[in-house]
Design brief:
Blueprint (H helix, E strand, L loop, with lengths): L9 H55 L11 H32 L6 H29 L16 E4 L6 E6 L7 H4 L10 H17 L6 E7 L20 H24 L5 H25 L13 E4 L6 H7 L12 H4 L5 E8 L21
Parallel strand pairs: 3-4
Antiparallel strand pairs: 1-2, 2-5, 3-5
Helix pairs in contact: 1-3, 2-3, 6-7
Length: about 375
């Protein structure tokens, strides 16, 4: 007796026709998901790797006293461009294999072999993963550059801002490390030492400002240091520091005297204030003033004042004498919000502002009626 012939139903035919399409669609989705996960975990891996290398470099520096090379901060835009280039390269390198796999699948679309279906799915997955990575690079290329009223394209410029009401231009020199025991035990600690790129900028800025001034009309600038709201020396930690270097010991004694003066002034202004908080505030004032001094030493190796016989650059104002005085002049108050976030927000305030109040012969009359604050971080 002859075997019965099974006639495929409409449902069977629809499934046979749609199965390869579903496999390709799923492969494409998995490829895109893989691209997103690759970028996400790559950034986390890079952060951990940089943190590990910095830790090893710091340990070597402590043991040998040899300063380790500075490790630059990772820029997301550069990594995205690299991923985009990688994705584009993979697409170009595999386009022939991908086309061949899909062509082979199309020939047996209704009843493809498993190996053919798997090969086509893998090729599509890899292609869409590469496409997903390349999209990050394309987005970075197409990202518009923020246009502002005043911009600085050179990488030598630090963070800069213009005050619309006065037209005064301020450059902010950052000090990324918090002050504390390491300020006195580590040579050239980043809490009070100007970075290499900022030193180069300040040298150029000083030369430029001197060239704009003249004895009849000197350039006038204001230099003000700032510190974060993080408190140190609240329990007398400063007295326990024991630097090995004689020069650092001298700076430590200067710090103790400066802190005592500010504490005394704050006690007069605010009787009954917490002595521990007052010492923390006073140490921050010391840090701000020492940062100011460090910037002035780079900007004007031979500091000038209005009392000089024929200055071409005049530095107005002086160091802070109270914490309240510094806080009233600060642009961003990192003490607002949760106290636990102060160490994170402190990077916004640990800086020195160099304000050009009169550029003398280089002064430009600006229409400030419609002006807005211009800020750009480069480098």
């Amino acid at each position: 007796m002859a075997a019965a012939t099974v006639t495929p139903t409409i449902g069977d035919r629809v499934w046979a026709a749609s199965r390869p399409a579903l496999v390709l669609l799923a492969s494409a989705m998995l490829g895109i998901i893989a691209a997103v996960l690759c970028r996400t975990f790559l950034f986390q891996l890079l952060d951990q790797l940089v943190a590990f290398v910095r830790g090893v470099a710091a340990l070597i520096q402590r043991l040998t006293g040899v300063a380790a090379p500075e490790i630059p901060t990772r820029k997301w835009s550069e990594v995205d461009l690299g991923l985009g280039a990688l994705g584009a390269t993979v697409i170009i390198a595999t386009v022939r294999e991908t086309s061949s796999a899909i062509d082979e699948l199309l020939k047996g679309w209704m009843n493809p072999e498993r190996s053919v279906l798997a090969k086509a799915g893998l090729a599509v997955g890899v292609a869409f993963m590469a496409l997903g990575l390349s999209v990050y690079g394309l987005l970075e290329i197409k990202r518009p550059v923020a246009s502002t009223a005043i911009t600085f394209q050179s990488e030598k410029f630090p963070l800069a801002a213009m005050e619309p009401a006065t037209g005064h231009l301020t450059f902010f020199i950052p000090f990324l490390a918090e002050g504390g025991e390491d300020t006195f035990t580590e040579p050239d600690h980043a809490s009070v030492t100007v970075g290499a790129s900022d030193r180069e900028f300040l040298l150029m800025l000083g030369r430029a400002l001197h060239s704009c001034g003249s004895p009849s009309r000197p350039v006038r600038i204001s230099v003000r240091g700032f510190a974060s709201s993080s408190l140190w020396d609240t329990n007398g930690e400063l007295a326990l520091v024991r630097p090995a270097d004689p020069a650092q010991r001298e700076k430590l004694e200067d710090a103790k005297r400066a802190v005592d003066q500010v504490v005394s002034a704050e006690g007069i202004q605010h009787p009954g204030s917490d002595p521990a908080i007052a010492r923390g505030h006073a140490f921050n004032v010391y840090l701000a003033n020492r940062r100011r001094e460090a910037v002035l030493n780079e900007l004007t190796p031979n500091p000038v004042t209005a009392a000089d016989p024929a200055p071409t650059l005049v530095v107005e104002g002086g160091p802070w004498t109270t914490f309240e005085e510094m806080q009233d002049a600060i642009a961003i108050d990192d003490s607002k919000g949760s106290p636990a976030d102060i160490p994170i927000k402190g990077v916004l305030t640990r800086s020195v502002g160099v304000t050009v109040k009169d550029a003398a012969s280089c002064a430009q009359q600006l229409n400030l009626d419609q002006a807005t604050v211009s800020v750009q971080a480069s480098g």
